[in-house]
């Protein structure tokens, strides 16, 4: 079995409006779904991606006001990597500088990436990639030809790199591509969310909290394959959770030997399941078991809006 690549990445934040301002306002992603943490309905679960929230483009957040700050380290996604069209890096370097965001150019596997952190300290990078369809979503001061396509991939910080790399190859079906400057690179078949780098050195374990990634999810093409993935995870020696209905995909979870929480998520049904494609992210969407409590839930959520930031207003 082979996963096509990353389905989504989920992280912790604190202030929901600042989270929206950074990912929609600065990075120009679309807020495709505004819902709640099903296990803690007083907290938003926000999804940002391309125009449709396609697998391989989705970063999600639990913005928990007054939560503790996490520490990035082993057992986490250390760097979330975004892909932009060729020739776009200079645009993003200027844009991020205009919003007061410090950047650093880093070369890995002969690619130059622009590394920076979001408002909570989550580590991000932007890299030019020819592969992968351009986004059709444009917002604020970002023209379509420079808009983020989706994930380029991720850098996994592992407490046991040998075991993590084995799981990528032998369980998830990634192909080892190269070794360079302290990293091993793996590639999957998708056009986006398809490149995973693992540092050779084991990392000291990190701690969860705002500014860290909670889990990384890999793609299962449909519900039938999802059930087969659960069998494959068990056969590999890990203990997956039962399948969980997350409304917009089915999910199962397991923690690999390097400490990273992995999820396998289905591509269907997608975010247009309960909203028209042109209206994604406009309303707080609740699963049916929470609908009777909508008034109370919405009253407990801080108001948020997608807005054009001052730096993009002429």
TrEMBL record:
InterPro entries per the UniProt record, alphabetical: Extradiol_RC_dioxygenase (IPR052537), Glyas_Bleomycin-R_OHBP_Dase (IPR029068), Glyas_Fos-R_dOase_dom (IPR004360), VOC_core (IPR037523)
Organism listed in the record: Paenibacillus mucilaginosus 3016
Signal peptide annotation: none
Protein name: MhqO
Stored CDD domains: PcpA_C_like, PcpA_N_like
Record PROSITE patterns: VOC
Domain (VOC) ranges: 5-129, 150-267
One Pfam family per UniProt: Glyoxalase
Superkingdom: Bacteria
